[in-house]
Amino acid sequence: MQKITISGFGGQGVLSLGKFISYSAIEQNLNTSWLPSYGPEMRGGTANCSVIYSAEEIAAPVIDHPDILIAFNEPSLDKFEGSVKKGGIIITNSDIVHKATTRKDVKFYQIPVDTLAAAINKRGANVYMLGVLLPIFNGDISEEAAIHAVEHVFESKPKVIPSNIECLKAGIEYMKKLVK
Amino acid sequence: MKKLWKGNEAIAEAAVAAGCRYFFGYPITPQNEIPEYLSWRLPEVGGAFIQAESEVSAINMLYGAAGAGARAMTSSSSPGISLKQEGISYIAAAELPCVIVNMMRSGPGLGGIQPAQGDYFQATKGGGHGDYHPIVFAPSSIQEFVDLTYGAFDVADKYRTPVMIIGDGMLGQMMEPAEIPPMRDLKTLPDKNDWAACGHSDGRPRIINSLRIEPDELEAFNEHLFKKYEEITKNETRYEDYLTSDAEIVFVAYGSVARICKAAIVELRAQGIKAGLIRPITLYPYPTEIIAKLAKCDKVKKFVTVEMSMGQMVEDVRLAVNGLKPVEFYGRSGGNVMMPGDLVKYVKEGK
Amino acid sequence: MKIVADKPKMLTETPLHYCPGCTHGIVHRLVAEALEELGKVDGAIGVVPVGCSVFGYKYFRCDVFEAAHGRAPAVASAIRRVVNPDNLIFTYQGDGDLASIGMAETVHACTRGENITIIFINNGIYGMTGGQMAPTTMPGEKATTCIYGRDPKVNGNPIHMCEMLATLTGPAYIERVSCYDVPHVNKAKAAIKKAFQVQMEKKGLSFIEVVANCPTNYHQTPLESMQFVKEKGCSFYPLGVFKDITKEDK
After folding, report:
1. Chain C 121-140, CB below 8 Å of chain A: which residues?
2. For the domain with range B240-349, which CATH number is right: 3.30.230.20, 3.40.50.920, 3.40.50.1980, 3.30.1540.20?
3. Which of B275, B282, B299, B279 is nearest to B291 (CA)?
């Protein structure tokens, strides 16, 4: 089971990254829940979502202490870093977030995901981030399941599928090197 | 096959699968995906969608469609449901089967748009004027939304009564895997020719009406209505019993809050505290019996009712417990959602 | 340093929550400027709707009622009977609020000839709830509850409020304006000011419709949305004065 909080500006693909994780979890026959923030605060403000996957039934869809926090902007890091579980993981999009976490008891990764993805697909940052997460998920979700999820989400835009799969794979490779 | 569904869209598709072909609604957050989905989906299956000019209008459109014998639905969120109350009373009094969805948001007044459960009284005690109750379903997962919506039309038809499905902004907006049951063959739906006013030419006009101006006539009708509610209570009361067999502390909660209680119960049990949960699935009829039975068990020390309100369902829990055990209340309101950790802390520290 | 332009004092310091490029901010300012220039800020009472301008009470520095959806003209009609006849009363409403759920209240306040001013923002879409079809959505325009574009055969026809209300005896002044460029902003201000003057002279109800934009839900940039208002909005909803009893008086 992983409890993941994803947060950033509206329009950064925060909610869709969460959906990618949930779709991948379904492909892997896991239970999953995706809970977005909603309302007028999303207009030009911050958006976040809580994503859980588990082999068991998922009780609460709300997350008080995430295993993983993905912060796409600084306000998100400020708001959620304190809630991350001890020994958990914080990942920032270091193209946007120019500071480190104040937490000493978590693993911290700064990944320039906009730049890394832009080399392949300018709009592929969230799929790249999905790739980054797979090695962290430690085999819970296979590359194949994630590819199926990408194919499913972009069903109506088949042209963008190959470059997104490339982003996914690049994300996986990037993280494999880091966690080694 | 299981697919990832957003709560609101899952309800909409489940309604279509159940044979619902008409929907009337007015935009209000956080339920907009229901009208949006049905605006294109219903025409695909030969049905129709009307974006009404107001909730008042929408509920009266529902009165018309249901009175003409169609499977029909409306949805809204708390302030909009308040506007519909007059119409719901008319629908109950005209004995029209239909489904009304309320994705609750925080109140009173215009309030906020975040999740809440402050419409419990309104939903279960009638809400509009006069003596009536809709049947009230309170699902707690997207799959249960689907299953109860699918079944709600049958229950509504069986008793010729409005059925209300209540969720909250959280359940409406979240996504989970769910499977939609097969499309009902419209030919297998109950025959309403006997009473539905759909334009007969057999010399026996069907009248859809809620006016009974003679006191004796109206009293007899009210007695008929309440006999029906007794039947409904006997046949339709539903709840989930989660780990109460050895429980010393029994939570009572419904909808999304029940899931937060379950997470807290897992944590409490890991710490050696025996907690369990009664989750009413129907809020009207209320599962009074099981709560009364647990109140008589020696091992049960107390009940804790948990709601996203200032305390509404807790009154029904107290009535069921009838003074045998303490009934405590833990609530958040205004659109705030309690965390499992809050409930663990409450049980251990009493705050 | 000399200040040559400033925010009207009638607007509070609260930052507007509107999306980039939305004309609500402009119209808020015009209402404030008109009231200030007429010396009517003191005692003014606003009634704001449900919709994007639901937070209007945070922005206007005067007494403001936040009304239930569509009911602002009813609320204002009652206020008119309670307060001093010299207090200026205005409602500020969107198309869903005024022309859909509040149609009855709008028509009846107008036909009674209430001595109030209605500012009607018509952008042809539900903004706050996320882009559903409005009573003024033009044929062919897409919305989230008519995803293939409004088809009058399926969704019904849009409503021309000024033209319709002009058939009533009650209203004293009805004008439709827009804000897509500076000359039109100036014209809109003159119209709003005139509407308030009509009320000050106790001549009856004044109604100003502003053909406005919604870049967010049109999925357009602010500039594209202004162009859309200019080319499409204002040809479907022609600008002009639809009723003016001050002229008839002469």
Report:
1. 128
2. 3.40.50.920
3. B279
Average pLDDT, chain B: 96
Structural domain harbouring A51: 2-179
* pLDDT for C50 beyond 80: yes
Q: Note the residue count of chain B.
A: 351
A104: contact with C, CB 8 A cutoff: no
* DSSP states of C24-55: HHHHHHHHHHHHHHTT--TT-EEEE-SSGGGG
pLDDT tens across B54-108, in order? 999 999 999 999 999 999 999 999 999 999 999 999 999 999 999 999 999 999 9
Residue B302 above 90 pLDDT? yes
Q: Using alpha carbons only, what angle is made at residue A38 by residues C123 and A148, rounded to the nearest 5 degrees?
A: 110
Interface touch C70/B54, C-beta < 8 Å? yes
* Contact between chains at A40 and C128 (C-beta distance less than 8 A): yes
Name every residue whose Cβ is closer than 8 Å to that of residue A177 and which is 6 or more positions away in sequence: none
The pLDDT score that the predictor gives to residue A43 is: 54
The Cβ-side half-sphere exposure at C101, using a 13 Å CA radius, reads: 28
Residue with tokens 């009208």: B35
The Cα A13–Cα A16 span in angstroms is 5
pLDDT at A179: 80
Using CA atoms, how far apart are residues C29 and B307, in angstroms rounded to an integer? Answer: 43
**Residue C249: what pLDDT?**
56
Please count the other Cβ atoms lying within 10 Å of the Cβ belonging to residue B240.
15
In this predicted structure, what is the pLDDT of residue B199?
A: 87
Chain A from 38 to 57: CB within 8 A of any B CB: 38-40
User: By the 8 A CB rule, do B120 and B309 touch?
Assistant: yes
* CB B119, CB B102: distance < 8 Å: yes
What is the complex's ipTM, to 2 decimals?
Answer: 0.91
Q: Name the CATH superfamily for B3-236.
A: Thiamin diphosphate (ThDP)-binding fold, Pyr/PP domains (3.40.50.970)
- Dump pLDDT digits (tens) for A66-98: 999 999 999 999 999 999 999 999 999 999 999
Q: In this structure, what DSSP letter does residue B190 have?
A: P
